[in-house]
Design brief:
The protein is α/β, with parallel strands linked by helices. The protein has helices at residues 36-45, 66-73, 147-156, 181-187, 196-203, 214-222, 228-233, 240-243, 260-266, 280-283, 289-296, 307-318, 330-336; strands at residues 2-8, 13-19, 25-29, 49-54, 76-80, 90-92, 97-100, 103-109, 118-121, 125-129, 132-133, 136-137, 166-169, 179-180, 237-238, 252-256, 273-274, 298-302, 324-327. The protein is built from 13 helices and 19 strands. The structure holds fe (ii) ion.
């Protein structure tokens, strides 16, 4: 496995790059905008393809690299379903899997630091965001933080993982890089409380100043969505309402770009064919599935929120497939328009 822990010394943020092999797909957790060039250089040097950029929660101390990485690599942006970001390509919740080729992370909802905090679990390690830090825990005094919820996330979820599980947090201010669940249980001073009430009392009396970047970081982290209006201006977008009457027409093919888990959970448009977004660039070339479909029908791409499909329609047009459009706002907009699902 390829695993890199990367550090932003301004915000003391750790970001993690993961891939199963050279030449394979990669994902990055908690990227920082100022470091995007560095990440992309590393991606080239390691010969991996960045397909997902994930934030464990909405950060208050730095601007996320999610939007910039998507704009430069067309990768999928991922956050938890509670995130207040305007658009991310994919939203996950407890029990989902976060997958790339050869790497599987279990999605664990661990609120408390914020109400959109998630941890991602692999066989031997867990990425804890700011829920569990090394000899500390993330503050719970803003962004819908909740010390009681955090106690539950830590004691009833994270500390239930095997003792030897490596803990990789989103921050460290002392220079520590990694810990284990067993070590944190034994030596994390915040976890030596006798009860949930003791923990709440401790967390509510920290009296920390607000993060320096907070007034800048939170507003910009809420607006990371792809500018879908640019695609609409070119006439390549359909509102869900305008796409509705196209269901069942044999000169139109709906192309679903989401992953299997998303389709199972949320349903799909009747008659849609499935093409994984990560295969799209191959697929729009002569000989590819999408290219073949476009010979016989007008293609309407869709995904969860319209980001992947907006990028897909641009890739298809670049490949010379003129009769293509996408559903603005994705399946979320489709559901609001009471579009049929199967
Ligand atoms: Fe945070």
């Amino acid at each position: 496995m390829i695993f890199r822990q990367l550090f932003d010394s301004v915000s003391c943020t750790y970001s993690y790059l993961l891939a199963s092999r050279r030449g394979g797909e990669a994902l990055i957790i908690d990227p920082v905008i100022e470091k995007v060039d560095r990440y992309l250089q590393l991606v080239r040097e390691l010969d991996v393809k960045l397909v997902k950029a994930v934030d464990t929660h909405m950060h208050a101390d730095h601007v996320t690299g999610l939007g910039a990485l998507r704009d430069r690599t067309q990768c999928i942006t991922v956050m938890g379903e509670q995130s207040k970001a305007d658009v991310v390509s994919m939203r996950v919740s407890e029990g989902d899997k976060l997958q790339i080729e050869g790497v599987d992370l279990d999605v664990l909802y661990t609120p408390g630091h914020t109400d959109d905090s998630y941890s991602f679990v692999m066989a031997d390690r867990v990425f804890t965001g700011d829920t569990l830090l090394i000899r500390g825990t993330g503050r719970t005094d803003f962004q819908n933080g909740d010390a009681r919820a955090q106690y539950d996330s830590i004691f009833n979820k994270l500390l239930k993982l095997p003792e030897s599980t490596f803990v990789f947090p989103a921050h460290d201010y002392k220079g520590d890089t990694v810990s284990t669940i067993g070590e944190e249980r034994a030596f994390n001073p915040r976890l030596q409380v006798k009860s949930v009430d003791g923990y709440v009392e401790l967390m509510n009396n920290l009296k920390l100043p607000n993060p320096k970047m907070m007034d800048v970081a939170i507003p910009s982290n809420m607006r990371i969505g792809l500018a879908q209006d640019e695609v609409a201006r070119k006439g390549w977008a359909l509102s869900a309402e305008r796409a509705l009457p196209l269901v069942g027409r044999h000169d139109v093919k709906f192309v679903d770009l989401r992953e299997r888990g998303e389709r199972q959970k949320h349903g799909s448009i009747p008659g849609a064919v499935h093409v994984a977004y990560t295969d799209l660039h191959e697929s729009v070339r002569p000989g590819g599935v999408v290219h073949g479909l476009a010979d016989a029908a007008r293609l309407v791409f869709y995904c969860a929120y319209g980001e992947r499909s907006a990028m897909a329609v641009q890739a298809a047009r670049q490949a010379g497939l003129e009769s293509t459009a996408h559903i603005e706002g994705g399946l979320a907009a489709w559901k609001q328009a009471n579009g049929p699902l199967e």
